[in-house]
Amino acid sequence: METFEISVPCHFGIEAVLKKEIYDLGYEITRVDDGRVSFVGDAEAVVRANMCLGTGERVLIVVGRFFASTFTELFDGVAALPIENYVRPDGRFWVTKATSVKSKLFAVPTIQSVVKKAMVERMKKAYQKEVFKEEGCDYPFRIFLYKDEVLFTLDTTGVPLHKRGYRTWTSKAPLSETLASALIDLTPWHPDRIMLDPFCGSGTFLIEAARMAAGMAPGMDRHFTCEAWDHLIPKNLWQEIKEELLSQVNADVETHLYGYDIDPGVIDIARKNAKNAGVDHLIHFQVRDVADLSHSKKYGFILTNPPYGERLLETDEVYELYRTLGEAYNRLDSWSMYVITSFEQACEAIGRKPAKNRKIYNGMIKTYFYQFPGPKPPKRRQGDGSFSE
Predict the structure, then answer these.
(1) Interatomic CA distance for residues 305 and 182, integer angstroms
(2) Angle of helix 177-185 versus helix 15-24 axis, rounded to 10
(3) What would the DSSP string read from start to end of 28-89?
(4) What is the DSSP letter of 117?
(5) Which of 71, 76, 314, 387 could pair covalently with 379 via S-S, beta carbons 3.0-4.6 A apart?
(6) pLDDT per residue over 109-142, tens digit each?
């Protein structure tokens, strides 16, 4: 089966998490850039990456790499690529997005126009045709220029991977599903441990955790642009892999997931999203103020995305909110806490210095993932006499 170089964009700061996901699927990493991880795989790899990666944004087939500092070089570089290996003669092909950073070519509309013309010229020579009606399957291309290096790719995903399909309703400042998944992976949480989000909003952290606990692949419930490309990806692969993934689901897994929010409307949204995701029975949502946060058991996890103060609240209000969160955390014996925020005074207000912090971009907002790990739980004796956490 033909192999491709596959490039997967992600949020800046979570490349290591995406690398591990790709390794766990059985593929070798070939290149890591800021906000992007690449590997080599065949048609099955394209299907598995789309269905199984929880932290990537898209699965892109790399059509070619080259350097271009003039539009002539850009045109010639694209025209030299085997576009016809990917696009059928009746296909609808276009440059859906162009990005330029620190490159001599920076006018995005012009880049898109030049690339489209180069693709058409290549197709004319390959198919011995002068006119392409473009009435068939969609082939959206994406081009990235960084320091004059051109990365030309074919987007197999279409609607981005963070659109799992379950989040019909959102709160005012939602966290993307892919970022939520990555942040969970950056904690030592396991499905048999307590997770609590006191600012649960749309419920994204808890829904992603519940789906992980139940063994649900992130993209198993949705469709992808490349499903129509049967000349590149055999149709039977989609059904075979989906059946394999469905066989691994355990919807009756026991979980300890709690979502609180002071706004009853927000809790209603979270419940609807959890139902859409098929995990509403695995999460307990409740209207509750962070000031009333408590739990009788030890060794739980707070994982939360409180208001940043960017749009929703004034600075004094945000400071008080984080101070209240810190007080609530102090009352929880042996718990860990993980907070993503851009609020500069977060740690001061919480009243603790984090053991670690990680810079992550939530969209265009620079945030920090503050980590306050608690003690590990004592090992428990298993039925076979062994111990586990």
Answers:
(1) 13
(2) 80
(3) -EEEEETTEEEEEEEHHHHHHHHHH-SSBS--EEEEEEEE-SSHHHHHHHHHTS-GGGTS-T
(4) H
(5) 387
(6) 999 999 999 999 999 999 999 999 999 999 999 9
Supply the pLDDT for residue 384.
41
As annotated, the residues of the chain forming the CATH 3.30.2130.30 domain(s) are 3-155
Residue range 3-155, CATH number: 3.30.2130.30
Label residue 247 by pLDDT band (50, 70, 90): very high
CATH class given for the domain over 177-215+250-381: alpha beta
Instruction: Name the pTM for this structure.
Output: 0.94
Q: What are phi and psi of 361, to 5 degrees?
A: -95, 120
How far is 315 from 380, CA to CA, in rounded Å?
Answer: 44
pLDDT at 363: 80
- How buried is 189 (Cβ within 10 angstroms: 0-12 exposed, 13-18 middle, 19+ buried)? buried
**294 to each of 194, 289, 302, 335, how far by Cα in Å?**
12, 10, 11, 11
